[in-house]
Structures
1.
Amino acid sequence: MTTNKDQLSANLRMGTVMLKVGNMNLMSNYYQKALGLDIVAEADGGQYLGRGTEPLVHLQPAGGLHIPARGEAGLFHTALLFTDQASLAATVASAAQYDPQLFAGSADHLVSEAFYFTDPEGNGIELYWDRPRDAWNWNGSSVVMDSLALPPQQFLTQHLTEESVTGQRQAVADVGHIHLQVGDVQTAEKFYVDTLGFAKTAGWHGQALFVSAGGYHHHMAMNVWNSRGAGPRKDTLGLGEVLIQLPAKDDVGALSERLSHHRIAVADDGAEIRFEDPWRNQIRVSVEVAPGNVQS
């Protein structure tokens, strides 16, 4: 059980998600044309794509690696958060038009409305909008979520506007949360809650765990729907790194000390720390930087 001093800052933000990719042209084309992202920066052969000056996804070439099997640990989806339903509708529409076969479903989660896609190399993507926080229901420390029907065409009819289509690339988007596939939920909770310092906000029949900082519904989630019993990851395409941003250097230092206390190997260069979760997912924690500054 974490104490308040062991919990991550309420002002935590999720940062740029790094993906190892096999076909840069194919993947870059998808993220630009389907999701309406622009190239914010280029470095080491890779591309940072985002909205405005805010990088959301880092595509890093990794030729020679294979796409992970469905049951391996790794990425379930990267979730991009939009500020309003019209902005969400514009990107849902462009993603559906790019390749309808990459649409994977939709759901009303009570706290949010979400649409799911799969990129050309099998990485999951969620596009979503949050309902106002005062509309969320809590049962003690657990937020009430569900997966109710959300008909895509009805949503687009209600919310897609000419203004949101023409202004798609100017609309703000953020990495709202990251959802992982893991081998078991109990180990995930011990690591992400008891050690790392997130607060548990929801569970799902022992099959999924949702965690956050600052009373958000979830900044990260882990499930075993495809991957129950999965062991440590091999070096594959897909998730390369999860970036967590904290508001101050002292927050990063405190986390480094906490991880070391729990005998988690930490690479600490004084500015940021890097470590692995129990399935060898790479996690980097740094001080939040101003929008437009790419951290490589």
Note: Helices lie at 24-34, 85-98, 152-159, 162-166, 185-195, 249-261.
2.
Amino acid sequence: MTDPKNQDRDLQTRIVQPEDRITPGFESFSVPVARASTVVFPDLATMRALVWHDDSKWRYGLHGTPTTIALAQRLAAIEGGEYALLQPSGLAAISNVYFGLVTAGDHVLVPDNAYGPNRDHADWLAHDFGIEVTYYDPMTGAGIDALIQPNTKLIWLEAPGSVTMEVQDVPAIAAVARARGIVTAIDNTFSAGLAFKPFDHGVDISVQALTKYQSGGSDILMGATITRSEELHKKLKLARMRMGIGVSADDASLVLRSLPSMKTRYEAHDRTAFALAQWLKARPEVAAVLHPALADCPGHAFYERDFKGGAGGLFSIVFDERYSAAQVDAFVEALELFSIGWSWGGAHSLAMPYNIRSMRTASQWPHEGVLVRFYIGLEAEEDLRADLEAALVKAFA
């Protein structure tokens, strides 16, 4: 029934503060989009009783809405964690870990195969903020103990490396770190939390670029930090709050929409990628195929031991050293079904050449030829194979 008092108010007031009468009982499979900057409190006592790290209470839209918290909870469940925080990109999630856990004078260990922007971030912190950074051979394993310093606070891992595909001995590194009281964080974007469960192998924090498989559409930027530790979660959340990091509820709803199909898509990417990797391994133009499921990929034994559920759509090849960078560029540009692009995780296949030697500082890259990383989308395998073969013939015949 209409409130009689409202009829006496100005039209503008009634537009701003309407009397909505919506029939209760509506349900659907999707999580409603709850947009908010201002969160309204029923009374001052409720507002004053709030604790900033309590996810069960609403404080301000920046820190969470029902939509963003629903996504965080589902991400934690997928990875086997207890707590998750959303950030506006994968790199923002990496930044959240740095600023939440290390300060000037602290030492950080970063694998030589780390995501390029992570290296840039570490170099920036070392140059401008007084953080000490050491890059290490990703195949070091338990030997990382020799690189730990009295001020080491954080060890990064990435397994596999998202370009060079080495699979680290994560449990060995995590065990050393835990014995020394050092936090470990892994960029687990490669597996989307499906194929590799870092917490089961002793890692403290998992970072995900939800831009990739979780989104699945090449149209969303988002990241997440996930942990089982309430203490670490609180540190990360405090840093996120102080930096003013938040995500759009609309973007979160798009990722939520894609999550139910993520495992099915991941498995489809994996099947086609592995088939193409095996086919390329027999090509005379190719000196090496770097795919974790292939026996000669560095760290394959760790992949076999620790990964359950495939490797998704990402792998790299190294061309025979007799081919120049210009010829490899011609190959990439001759591809019709593979676009040239940095990201991955969507439906469309991608190819990108890399100069690995320029990216390494702590380990020797064993290959002389040019590397091309492929992301295999959801196109038909036979069409992608035909496209690759035509481009190989055109560029190298």
Note: The first helix runs from residue 4 to 7.
3.
Amino acid sequence: MATQRRLGAESSRTRALLVEAAELLVQEEGYVAVSARRVASRADLKPQLVHYYFRTMDELLLAVFDRFAQRFLDRQAQALASARPLTALWDLYTDTFVAVIVIEFFALANHRAAVRDKIAGATEQFRIGQIAELDRAMRRVGIDVVAYPPSAIVMLMMTISTTMKMESNLDIEHGHAELVALVKRQIDEVEASAGKDRN
């Protein structure tokens, strides 16, 4: 009976360096650029170490996904705690790094069956929590969650940010500035109106 080989500790500094290097490759060149050799070179480590810490490259990519998701949750919590949660959330969603990672991991999920369920399941749970947190933040500052459903806002912001990034990658930007201005104006009006209603 075959025994499962031992992997390096998840708390290892070396493992963290490999995950960070893989994330940078995903951000700069896409998930297809992530190979043991490229990751090790980026981390200034030996390629064998990649396989010491990860059974497969998909396992490494999922570690990148987990790292990104945790950092995003932390940034989202800060955004939603602000006096202007919709503005802060929009700024977070339109952060180029966020859009790039989201696009790459959705592409990965569509092309690699081995990671599809994990990414889809985690994203679904993440969205449910995201909507609940936004609902609380909007109620806190007095924004009408019936007129402006948090679930619709999350979907609009994510769709707009990822679509603009995908188009920008193709040097298509016609209408982007106008759309951003429209969204910001609408957010300003909603948040300003909520502030008046509370006074």
Note: The longest helix spans residues 113-141.
